Each structure stands twice: as structure tokens, then as C-alpha cells.
Amino acid sequence: MRHFNHSMQSAAHRDGRLLIVEALGKFCDGRAVLRNLTLSVDTGEIVGLLGRDGAGKTVCFNLIMGLMKADSGRIWLGDADVTGWTADRRGRHGLNCLPQEPSIFSGMTVEQNIGTVLEFREPDPAVQAARLELILREFQLEHLRKMAAMQLSGGERRRCEIARAMACDPAIMLLDEPFAGIDPLAIIEIKHAIQLLKVQGVGILISDHNLKDMLELVERAYVIHEGRLIFSGSPVQMLADAEVCRLYLGPEAEQLRRLLSQRPD
């Protein structure tokens, strides 16, 4: 059951999709860094945005979040055309982003990090307390609640950041390099946290260079190359696509095909 659904309700579906990016374009210094990009994310769906460094993934995230202004195209959250909205207004409408750089409040404890967000969003102290306990339990942070954020490991910090983002009641979550800089055991914990977002109905757009763990998570993937969309489809279809293998995956494609074939249905 979805526990935090105010933003989900406000982002009413447009053709069943929560996030729609239509023909998005961006020029920087006279050069097209993103060209006619179209993608979508549904409720409770994990979608990958893939590409080499410089392909345009970060620009795409910034445009969706409202941190940059698009030169062409539209962005929809549910039935709302948010293309001209500020980042803050998009956030209130259910759009949230976990950046690659640490975003935790290092001078606070784990429960203070989450509680501060809840205090901002929920006026009732009793509801705040109940939601805090629920989030701590669901993201396996109860034993760390009194620990200062600066003392957390990389994986614990990431888990706390995702839990704090959940306190914002997102409908759509953008995850930028969530596996960067953490060990394999912590990656398993982060993947569990991401799956928890999915179960609670959050639509997730994720970008990461760790293709193995990415492809174990996502249901669909978009691949961009030099700002242009070259593929949209399932991970299995992606690994069989000649253009994707030539321009993006290279020799890694065969190893990824073997790993993906071992994934349970």
C-alpha cells in the first residue's frame, strides 16, 4: 500500500503516465546537447536513462527538475504541463531528485534529517511521528536513528537520503548515480530501497554507470548518444540492439547478456 499519496494524487495521470518528456531540446554555446528527446515514466515503474559521459543525461535531469530551461519541447507531470514551472513548484507537485553529490544534512542525526522534511510538509505532530517511525522501519534505519549523518557509511548515507526523499511524498523520483562510491553490499541495500519506492507507487528514472545493477532493476531503458535518443525498450532488447552495442556498450554487451539471462523473472 502506498503510504504517502498526496503528490501521487496531485500528479493525476495523463494517458496513464506520471512523467512525460516530449521532444525536449537544449542548446549550450550554440551546440545541441539534447535533441528531440521523448520519454515517459509510469506509476511504480523503474526506468533507466543510459549513455556515455557527455551524452546528455545530466542535462536531461536538470531540464526535468527545472534547474535549466529547455529550448524546445514540453514536460508533463500527470495532466500538468510544467515546462514553465520553477523547480520548487515542480517539487510541490511530486517531482523529487536524489543528486549524485551528497545531499544529507551532515550536522543532523538520521531521524533529524527525515523529521525536518516531515515538519515542513505535515502540520500534525502525531502524523509526523507516525510517518517518521514508518520510514525508519521501512528503510531499515531504526538502529541508526540517533547516529550523526557525518558518521554514516556511503551506503547508509544513500539509504538515508532516499528515505528523506520519501518523506517529501514524491510521485516521481530521479536518481542520479545512486550506486556511485559505495561497496557491493551497500548496493544491495540501495537496490532494496529503490524497489521499496516502486512498491509504494513512485515512478523512478535512474541513471548510473553501474550497468549490471541498473539492468537488474529497470523494466525499460532509454539510451542517448550525443544528445540523441538511439534506443527505447526492455533491457533484453537493448542488449540485442546493434546500434546500442556499437555506440554505447561495446565488448561489455556479451557479459551483460550472460548476467541478465541469470536474473529471475
TrEMBL record:
GO terms for cellular component: ATP-binding cassette (ABC) transporter complex. The lineage of its organism: Bacteria, Pseudomonadati, Pseudomonadota, Alphaproteobacteria, Sphingomonadales. Gene3D superfamilies: P-loop containing nucleotide triphosphate hydrolases. It comes from the Bacteria. NCBIfam families: LPS_export_lptB. PANTHER family: CONSERVED COMPONENT OF ABC TRANSPORTER FOR NATURAL AMINO ACIDS-RELATED (PTHR45772), LIPOPOLYSACCHARIDE EXPORT SYSTEM ATP-BINDING PROTEIN LPTB (PTHR45772:SF10). The keyword Cell inner membrane does not apply. Keywords: ATP-binding, Hydrolase, Nucleotide-binding, Transport. This is Lipopolysaccharide export system ATP-binding protein. InterPro entries: AAA+_ATPase (IPR003593), ABC_AA/LPS_Transport (IPR051120), ABC_transporter-like_ATP-bd (IPR003439), LPS_export_LptB (IPR030921), P-loop_NTPase (IPR027417). One of its GO terms (molecular function) is ATP binding. Residues 19-251 form the ABC transporter domain. It comes from Novosphingobium sediminicola. Its EC number is 3.6.3.-. One of its GO terms (biological process) is transmembrane transport.
